[in-house]
Write a structure and sequence with these properties.
Helix content is 12%, strand content 37%. The chain has 406 residues and is mainly β. It has 2 domains: 210 residues, Jelly Rolls (Sandwich); 165 residues, Protein of unknown function DUF2961 (Jelly Rolls, Sandwich). Strands 14-22-16-17-24-1-25 form a 7-stranded mixed β-sheet. Strands 13, 15, 18, 19, 20, 21 and 23 form a 7-stranded antiparallel β-sheet that branches. The radius of gyration is 22 Å and the shape is globular. The C terminus is likely disordered.
């Protein structure tokens, strides 16, 4: 089984893991019925993401996409993505614009809007009274009581709610205003999965846990520290043009828990070197990771400081990866220099013992580029094709940037 992370460029902010983890935004409940309380700790557990979720689920989305885009031959690139809804209902003498209507068992894992408006209402299991009711901008913006930043937060002109909202039978989401953009990301579990439906009382009962998770997400670099028994291998090498060097190799049932590059401040060569040095990792003999250094760490182009749960880049050029990458017998990390100048690589790999179970997955991160891609005529661009059982953890957005051939 595989966990895929497709790489292109950087998406900033502490809410990054809740993008990258749109695998979905949380790991596996795994114990007992699905509840808000059990889903909350998984929001910060990268170790849990390395195992196929139990119970399994499919991630889906309702959005304000332009309904004129009906097929690949009819208005496929229509871009009127505001104010589009499933339908309009009349409830208690008011119009409500239906954003989501889904059968359970399932769970909302994220609600987003670029310009939230009106009162949000979430109806669980066809109840007449909403389980959650509040102004949309307030509940997505971090000012609603009990939903602190970054559980609810405004980032880069987008308002977000990451509170897990499970439902056993059915869920409807509405607003009483109609002209805004929105996403509602949700899970669908297999029929028969036990789910405890969200209630306002349940939310209040989770106040301490929600606050604790918000605190952890506000300082993501302190989370997921490697456990006892770690092994650290440092490297300090010059990589000549066209050369490939080994940065570390390990044997046994373990997992890479930290991978760090301390990139020197060298002025104008930073950007091309970060793209021309390609990082590769092979787990149990399978080539699983291949991506330019800057892209792998989410920094490209150049050094762009940010802090997130799985990745961070510091002002001094220290780039840290915290993805948990297990292997049964072996791991090899290498760097290949496709550029025209020698590159100095310094850092370390930290591994720890890891028990491999049937649900454990290999980590994959791949990178794809297409040169001279015209903006018109518009066309779809496929950034990943995957087969078999696994989990898609997320992707960064591609940027235009010249890449050395090789």
């Amino acid at each position: 089984m595989k966990i895929h992370f497709t790489i292109g460029a950087w998406i900033p902010g502490v809410c990054l893991p809740l993008l990258v983890l749109t695998m979905a935004s949380f790991g596996s409940a795994g114990v007992g019925p699905v509840t808000t309380l059990l889903m909350l700790p998984d929001m910060t557990d990268l170790s849990g993401m390395a195992e196929f979720p139990d119970p399994p689920y499919t991630c889906k989305q309702f959005s304000s996409w332009d309904r004129a885009s009906t097929s690949s031959t009819q208005n496929w690139f229509a871009n009127g993505d505001c104010g589009q809804y499933l339908r309009i209902e009349n409830r208690n003498g008011r119009k409500e614009y239906v954003m989501m209507d889904a059968e359970g068992p399932g769970a909302i894992v994220r609600i987003w809007s670029a310009n939230p408006d009106g009162v949000l209402r979430i109806y669980i299991d066809r109840a007449e009274k909403p389980a959650l009711e509040a102004p949309l901008q307030e509940i997505l913006g971090g000012t609603y009581p009990g939903l602190p930043d970054p559980i609810a937060c405004e980032r880069s002109r987008g308002w977000n709610l990451y509170l897990p909202i499970p439902y056993a039978k059915h869920c409807t989401v509405t607003s009483d205003k109609g002209e805004f953009y929105y996403h509602v990301n949700y899970r669908t579990y297999p029929p028969g999965t036990k789910v405890v439906s969200f209630t306002a009382d349940q939310d209040a009962a989770c106040t301490a846990e929600i606050k604790a998770v918000a605190g952890k997400l506000s300082a993501p670099g302190d989370l997921n520290a490697p456990p006892a028994g770690t092994e650290t291998k440092a490297f300090d090498v010059m990589v000549a043009p066209g050369a490939s060097v080994e940065l570390g190799s390990f044997s046994g049932a373990k997992a890479v828990r930290r991978f760090v590059i301390r990139w020197p401040s060298t002025g104008e060569r930073d950007e091309p070197a970060l793209r021309s040095v390609v990082l590769s990792m092979a787990f149990d003999g399978e080539a699983s990771v291949e991506a330019p250094l800057g892209d792998f760490f989410g920094s490209a182009p150049g050094i762009n400081p940010f802090e997130s749960l799985p990745l961070s880049v510091a002002k001094d050029g220290t780039m840290t990866c915290r993805w948990v990458m297990p292997f049964k017998t072996s791991a090899v990390i290498r760097a290949r220099n496709l550029g025209k100048a020698a590159v100095h690589l310094k850092g370390e790999s930290v591994v720890a013992p890891h028990t491999w179970i049937p649900a454990t997955m290999h980590f994959h991160a791949k990178w794809r580029i297409e040169h001279n891609l015209p903006t018109d005529p518009k066309r779809d661009w496929n950034y990943m094709t995957a087969t078999g059982q696994g989990v898609f953890a997320g992707r960064d957005l591609p940027r235009r940037w010249p890449v050395p051939q090789g």
